[in-house]
């Protein structure tokens, strides 16, 4: 559960059980010099897997991406900054070791954890024999939306990422090439009394 700059970790005994107090509270790292404390507000949290490791990943208003390994919660999280742009959308593809984030800069950025951690492979090795879609590439930016992008997600193989934007478009991107594969305009209208 994310609140402000904190992630509260709970153990749920069974689905009908009431929440007890958190087992642990994870704190985001201290803000960078010149950054307001309120800028570290967590916008989204996902639990997933990167290769062999279960992870908790959060994104923030300041563009920070924090990645905790659930088996090593006493260690500080891996931190990536998404160009200081308020980051909202978040997707994880465990088998490819990819994290996609979308930001108020109208850009989607895909981070390749295999390349970013190749000198210290803290997430282990690939679990499935999928051909890597970003071999040798640390990050890829996907541009084309004309407004904020609150939603991103990967397809099953991790080669494509879908995005939906306030610009009323949904787009499908080929991560291998960095090109837009298709676009769909969604016409929206508001009723006068709403």
Structural summary, described in words:
This protein has 194 residues and is mainly beta. 2% of the residues lie in helices and 43% in strands. It has one helix at residues 113-116; strands at 2-3, 6-9, 24-27, 42-50, 53-60, 64-69, 78-81, 87-93, 98-103, 107-112, 139-143, 151-154, 160-164, 169-174, 179-185. Strands 4-5-6-7 form a 4-stranded antiparallel β-sheet, with no helix packed on it. A 4-stranded antiparallel β-sheet has the order 8-9-10-11. Strands 12-13-14-15 form a 4-stranded antiparallel β-sheet, with no helix packed on it. A hairpin with a 2-residue loop joins strand 1 (2-3) and strand 2 (6-9). The longest helix is centred in the middle third of the chain and has 4 residues, at 113-116. The protein is globular.
Uncertain segments: none
Could you tell me the radius of gyration in angstroms? 18 Å
Structural class category: mainly beta
Q: How much of the polypeptide forms β-strand, as a percent range?
A: 35-45%
Estimate the helix proportion, in percent. under 10%
Instruction: Give the overall silhouette.
Output: globular
Distance between the termini: 32 Å
Q: What value does the average pLDDT take?
A: 89
Helical segment tally?
1
Largest sheet: 4 strands, antiparallel
* Helix-strand topology string: EEEEEEEEEEHEEEEE
Spatial order of strands in the largest sheet:
4-5-6-7
Multimer state: single chain
């Amino acid at each position: 559960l994310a609140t402000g700059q904190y992630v509260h970790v709970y153990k749920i005994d069974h689905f009908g059980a009431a929440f007890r107090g958190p087992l642990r509270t994870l704190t985001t790292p201290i803000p960078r010099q010149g950054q307001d404390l309120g800028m570290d507000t967590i916008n989204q949290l996902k639990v997933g897997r990167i290769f062999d490791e279960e992870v908790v990943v959060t994104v923030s208003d300041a563009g920070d991406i924090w990645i905790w390994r659930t088996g090593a919660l006493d260690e500080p999280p891996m931190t990536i900054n998404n160009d200081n742009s308020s980051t909202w959308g978040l997707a994880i593809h465990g088998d490819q070791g990819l994290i996609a984030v979308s930001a108020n800069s109208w850009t989607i950025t895909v981070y390749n954890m295999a390349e970013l951690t190749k000198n210290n492979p803290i997430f282990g090795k690939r679990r499935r024999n999928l051909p890597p879609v970003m071999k040798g590439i640390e990050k890829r930016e996907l541009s084309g939306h004309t407004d904020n992008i609150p939603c991103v997600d990967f397809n099953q193989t991790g080669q494509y990422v879908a995005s939906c934007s306030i610009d009323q478009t949904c787009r499908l991107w080929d991560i291998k090439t960095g090109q837009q594969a298709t676009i769909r305009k969604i016409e929206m209208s508001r009723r006068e009394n709403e």
